[in-house]
């Protein structure tokens, strides 16, 4: 669907600037670096059961809450961090999603160690 700015976009992204920017710059593009891959793993896991725009609107909050998506820092999060994040109104405060993010970080590192990078896996 072509919009007034001449860019052809999928109908699902509507006219929300955050969504159209995501569509134009990120959606459908191959990810070849581990930091971006981990970011999307965190965001996609948080999105389960919710709309993607809900997560996009909280993306910067997730970046702040999860140490700029630094996989090693997140892997080191403790139960105290889980409790802190459960109070963070800027993210989805679901204990299982928060705990799985920490667990996923640890697994992500194991894959990196085995394959040289997560993207190589």
Topology of helices and strands:
Blueprint: H1 17-25, H2 34-47, H3 52-56, H4 59-65, H5 71-75, H6 79-86, H7 95-115
Helix pairs in contact: 2-7
Structure description:
The protein has helices at 17-25, 34-47, 52-56, 59-65, 71-75, 79-86, 95-115. The chain is flat and about 45 Å long. The protein folds into two domains: 1-30, no CATH class; 34-115, Hypothetical protein, domain 2 (Endonuclease III, domain 1), CATH 1.10.340. The protein has seven helices and no strands. α2 (34-47) packs antiparallel against α7. The longest helix has 21 residues, at 95-115. The protein has 121 residues and is an all-alpha fold. The protein is 57% helix and 0% strand.
| Helix fraction bin | 55-70%
Question: How many domains in all?
Answer: 2
End-to-end C-alpha gap? 35 Å
How much of the sequence is in beta strands? under 5%
**Largest sheet descriptor:** none
In total, the number of strands is: 0
Low-confidence segments: none
Quick one: CATH superfamily of the largest domain?
Answer: Hypothetical protein, domain 2
- Content-based structural category: mainly alpha
Mean pLDDT: 93
CATH hierarchy: architecture of the largest domain? Orthogonal Bundle
Q: Give the count of helical stretches.
A: 7
Q: What letter string, H or E per element, gives the SSE order?
A: HHHHHHH
